[in-house]
Amino acid sequence: MPMYDDPRILRAIAHPTRNRILAELHASGPIRAADIARMLDIPANQASFHLRQLAKYELVEEAPEQARDKRDRVWRLTAADGINFRTQDMLDQPGGQAAWEVFRSNAVAWGHFLVDQALTAPDPDNRRSLSDSALRLTQDEASELMEDLGAVLQRWRARTQGSDDERTTYSIYQMIQPYPERPEGD
């Protein structure tokens, strides 16, 4: 999995539409700009613009072998396993701290939104799950757990990728961290 340290890349993926495009490509595999536009309910030219911005930073690329003809543009992730940052290396660069703050702010807002939706949105078909678990682990065990969960997700991704209109993209939001202390007053 490639590691990135360019603050401009972090700022580019902090944009909610671009982040969602990356999520759809990760979930679906190669996909047409028009299909992304339909999935995100945005104009096709807007989807194309965001894809070009992601391509500028080599996060996505065209997949010409998937195209029906020369005018058909199909896109794929350049790193099928996802995007990882060398955070400290990025923070040490000019603009790194500002890019991190933009990304962090958007990630916090997205996390709040996901939890809020899981707890408040009507779910008559019981398609949502929110769990909060605690385990006692060593650092090595925590790393092993993260690898195991990643392998489970990768197995399911391989099993379900493709353009199947019966499938809906699900968000799987997980955190593994030492149990945080609550600030005083909470």
From TrEMBL:
Coiled coil: none annotated. This is Helix-turn-helix domain-containing protein. InterPro entries: ArsR-like_HTH, HTH_ArsR_DNA-bd_dom, WH-like_DNA-bd_sf, WH_DNA-bd_sf. Residues 160-186 are annotated as: Disordered. Residues 8-87 form the HTH arsR-type domain. It comes from the Bacteria. It comes from Nocardioides hankookensis.
